[in-house]
Design a protein that fits this description.
6 helices, globular, alpha/beta, 10 strands, Spore Coat Polysaccharide Biosynthesis Protein SpsA, Chain A, four-stranded mixed β-sheet
């Protein structure tokens, strides 16, 4: 995408992150953003910005760890945290409800699955996994898909969503300029 924060790119006249937060806010009690660097770029959103606690920009696993540690420190009565990638502007508005319907106990670990495959960054993580995640990160593990599989994550299937007669992956993500252009087209179609 040419550098910078993908989530701050405009989609439909507003940052992608604005759309992500609007979809997530009704589903959860608290939201934090995991980001490194100058946190002031997220000040307009009015939510805590939590950097990785593991040094070296270790990727999404370090972000999940930072989020779990934040929950453990700030919301000790909460047993799970939901993670959502900030480049998936069409994720389901019932994501958390569907995850909770599959939850059996405090150790339930869930990740999203669609026809396109597993989406390990989108999940319901037991807060108790923070310690195991830190050990793995300290040992150099970085691959999210392998880590969630090795730690017993259960895949929750999500069907395609229809936008103006077109079926799309509910976890359609924006990785390239052409993905952003496709998202613009889908957004215009859904508005009409």
């Amino acid at each position: 995408m040419g550098g910078g924060d993908k989530c701050l790119r405009a989609l439909g006249g507003e940052p992608i992150l604005t759309r992500i937060l609007a979809r997530l806010r009704p589903q959860v009690s608290d939201i934090i953003i995991n980001a490194n660097g100058d946190v002031s770029r997220f000040a307009p959103y009015g939510v805590p910005v939590v950097p990785d606690t593991i040094t070296g920009f270790s990727g999404p696993l370090a972000g999940a760890h930072a989020g779990l540690e934040w929950v453990r420190a700030n919301r000790p009565d909460i047993g799970h945290a939901v993670t959502v990638a900030t480049d998936t502007p069409f994720f389901p508005t019932d994501l958390v409800r569907r995850f909770l319907a599959e939850t059996r106990d405090e150790s339930t670990f869930l990740v999203a699955r669609s026809e396109a495959g597993t989406h390990p960054v989108i999940g319901l993580w037991p807060v108790e996994l923070a310690a195991a995640l830190k050990v793995s990160l300290d040992q150099g593990h970085r691959k999210v898909s392998a880590w969630v599989k090795d730690h017993g994550a259960v895949e929750v299937p999500f069907p395609p969503v229809e936008i103006d007669g077109t079926l799309i992956d509910p976890f359609f993500n924006i990785n390239k300029p052409e993905d952003l252009a496709a998202a613009e087209t889908l957004l215009r179609a859904s508005a009409s």
